[in-house]
Amino acid sequence: MTIEQINDHKIKVTVSERDQEEFGVTYESMNYSDANTRRLCEKIMYRAGKEIGFRTGGAKLLVEARQSGNGNVTLYLSKIEPKAEEEKLYSGIAVFEKMNSVIDCCHLFGPFFSSLQKSSLYQYEGKYYLIFEIVQKRKKAEMLWKTILEFGEKSKKGKGFLAEHGECLCPNHFIEKMTRMKTL
User: Fold this and answer.
1) How many Å from the N-terminal Cα to the C-terminal Cα in the chain?
2) β-strands 153-154, 88-96: how paired?
3) Which has the least CB within 10 A, 28, 44, 134, 135?
4) For the domain with range 88-183, which CATH number is right: 3.30.70.330, 3.40.1030.10, 3.90.1150.30, 3.30.70.1950?
5) How is 141-160 classified by DSSP, letter by letter?
6) What is the pTM of this model?
């Protein structure tokens, strides 16, 4: 069995007739539902990792088999990387007991400033409601939300309720305005 790295995502493996006999496989019988084929693939991946550092790293693996004229079988193993996660619009409403907590929370948006779409501030029954929309990847949006919840909590009141019953303190760009004020 010889292993040759084609690029970072693909290797070429030549499986000799002797290797095929050792694992109990032939070109015709190779199928991943076959236990012998799986054992062969596991051995290939073990050797590829040890000899040339080829590992899947959690990616899916595509295995293509081609029959050679000399009885050998050539396998091409390619890592199929998952698609990059797309950015989506995320919105949230956090409620705070004190205005200082709202101001402190606004500075969390620094690294996300360019992806901030909207932000406004409402007051209802002595509490402050920060409404924001941000375009971000899910994991980063979740990380931001968890950090926000260190200052306040998730609101049970929706945007429509606050618009109807709350007092709008700043209808647009609240976070941007607060960040600019604090840095001056």
Assistant:
1) 67
2) antiparallel
3) 28
4) 3.30.70.1950
5) HHHHHHHHTTTSEE-SS-HH
6) 0.55
- CA 97, distance to chain mean position in Å, is 33
Confidence at residue 184, expressed as pLDDT on a 0 to 100 scale: 39
Strands (E), the chain: 2-7, 10-15, 60-67, 73-80, 88-96, 116-124, 127-136, 153-154, 167-170
The CA distance from 149 to 158, in Å, is 17
CA distance 93 to 163: 12
pLDDT recorded at residue 138: 86
The candidate with the shortest Cα–Cα distance to 75, out of 19, 116, 124, 21, is 19
Cα 110 to Cα 135: distance, rounded to the nearest angstrom: 14
Domain locations along the chain: 2-80, 88-183
CA 77, CA 60: separation in Å to the nearest integer? 10
Mean pLDDT over the full length of the chain: 89
Give the Cβ contact number of residue 133 at 10 Å: 15
